[in-house]
Every structure is written in C-alpha cells, then in structure tokens.
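Give me the 3D structure for Protein ApaG.
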Amino acid sequence: MQSYSHTRHSVRITVNPVYLENQSIPEDNQFLWAYHVRIENLSAENLLLRKRYWKIIDALGRVQEVWGDGVVGEQPNLQPGESFEYTSGTPLPTSSGIMAGFYVMEKKDGERVEIEIPVFSLDSPHEVISVH
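Predicted structure for Protein ApaG (132 residues):
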C-alpha cells in the first residue's frame, strides 16, 4: 500500500488510499477507493479542523471539487501532540485518478491556516499502462 505524507505549519497529513475491488464494477465503469487519513498536530498550538477541500481528477481529466465542514461529520480539536484519523472514500468512472486538497485549521486566536493534503494517486489493477 502506497503512503503519501506532507507537513505544513507543523501539521503532518498522511494518506493511504486503497482500491476496493469487491465494491467496484469495472464493466460498468464504477471504481471505488477508500482513503485513510492521519492528521498529526506537531505544533505547540491547539488546532481546530474547520473545513476541507478536495479536488478529484479522473483519468480523462474531469475535475470534481468538494468543499465541506470538518471531516466525516466531525471538526476535530487537536491539542499539541495529538492526532486524528479517519477513513472515507470516493468513486470514479475511470480506473485511475488523483486527489489533492487542503484542510482549513483554526488556531486558538482565530487565525485560519490552510494545511495542504499531499497529492495521491488512485490506481486500480484495471488501469491499462502503456509505455511510450
């Protein structure tokens, strides 16, 4: 399993995507992935996860953008040294794609910072790879 990690503003984001073979229907162009995210507060400040933004791009270059409050129905409040983990998923009409995005975190003083989520690849065993 491929792991993707990025640290910004003393927050480490690690993402592990997994292709869900048993829930995908390739003959109907339905491909499903789960992704597990770990958010680690490496700073000396309390951080509240307010919003998320995802940009999902399928193999044909079609873009879907998703904005929302918190993650999986929560707005975790991370004290220094704490972490939060969750699993979510995304469907695609193609056998591969990429995801990227950011979280909007709020400091105790009300300042908001964007924490980049590392770009990660969504690859299924149904992806046809050609060498040029």
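The CA atoms of residues 31 and 103 lie 25 Å apart. Let me know if you want a second pass.
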